[in-house]
Design goal:
Number of helices: 9
Radius of gyration: 19 Å
CATH class of the largest domain: Alpha Beta
CATH topology of the largest domain: 2-enoyl-CoA Hydratase, Chain A, domain 1
Largest sheet: 6 strands, mixed
């Protein structure tokens, strides 16, 4: 895999995914979108990997989309295709986002797309797109991820939200000191890696697929996921481990299915 804007390191069952354009404040260009898309696809397909940590190298997590090219010179056509957004890649393995300093625009979208989000005290979230005549792409998603008033504050007023307020309204899971950011992310990822991958991935799949469905449709999706998980070897091994009072030894032949 030839990556130029993202670092991708596999450390045992945990993948470390790091935005790597520090000279551009990790502003996201087409190369980074493509690199992230390739990384998430590999992460999902590698049965040895159980969880990922997403972070940014340098002074901040991400300054958002790279707008250095100025105004577009051709008509815009929305396709709904985002190669690097994990939700559209079917990534059902858990992702921990470790954020610091500025989390802006498109960078905020990929950060909020993680399952567990931790941030340093100096972290701020900002969607400045209206200042540049741009409609924020995930505007339709954010009211499902946060209270309407907070979504409006971010999207319509285009004002910054600091880490303390983000924590208070449930945007992030935890605030940590800067020197504890990666160690706490690793603790969370290690915990995720200890659990049944079939169960964890099944529950994340159900969370994603059922998010916008009515009760009957949720029940249908639940049946599909629950039947798969509860009939898996992981479920059998979990029962044996409980009875034998030992740590479960999860198999590899049924992960990521």
């Amino acid at each position: 895999m030839n990556l130029t804007t993202v670092e991708y390191e596999k450390r045992g069952p945990i993948a470390h995914v790091t935005l790597n354009r520090p000279d551009k404040l990790n502003a996201m260009n087409d190369a980074m979108h493509q690199d992230l898309g390739a990384v998430w696809q590999d992460f999902q397909n590698d049965d040895k990997l159980k969880a990922a940590i997403l972070s940014g190298k340098g002074r901040c997590f991400s300054a958002g989309a790279d707008l250095s090219g100025g105004s577009p010179d051709k008509p815009y056509h929305y396709t709904g295709e985002f190669v690097d957004i994990s939700r559209t890649r079917g990534v059902y393995k858990p992702i921990v986002a470790a954020l610091h300093s500025h989390v802006v625009g498109y960078g905020m979208w990929i950060a909020m797309d993680a399952d567990l989000v931790i941030a340093t005290e100096d972290t701020s979230f900002w969607l400045p797109e209206p200042q540049w005549g741009i409609a924020t792409l995930p505007a339709g998603w954010f009211p499902r991820m946060m209270p309407w008033a907070i979504a409006s504050e971010l999207l319509l007023l285009a004002e910054r939200v600091d880490a303390k307020r983000a924590y208070e309204v449930g945007l992030i899971n935890k605030i940590v000191a800067a020197d504890e950011l990666l160690s706490e992310a690793e603790r969370m990822a290690s915990r995720l890696a200890e659990l049944s991958p079939v169960a964890v991935q099944g529950m994340k799949e159900l969370m994603i697929r059922a998010n916008s469905l009515d009760y009957a449709a949720v029940d249908t999706v639940t049946a599909v996921v629950q039947n798969r998980v509860m009939n898996s070897e992981d479920r059998q091994e979990g029962g044996r481990a409980f009875v034998e009072k030992r740590v479960a030894r999860w198999g590899h032949n049924n992960q990521g299915q």
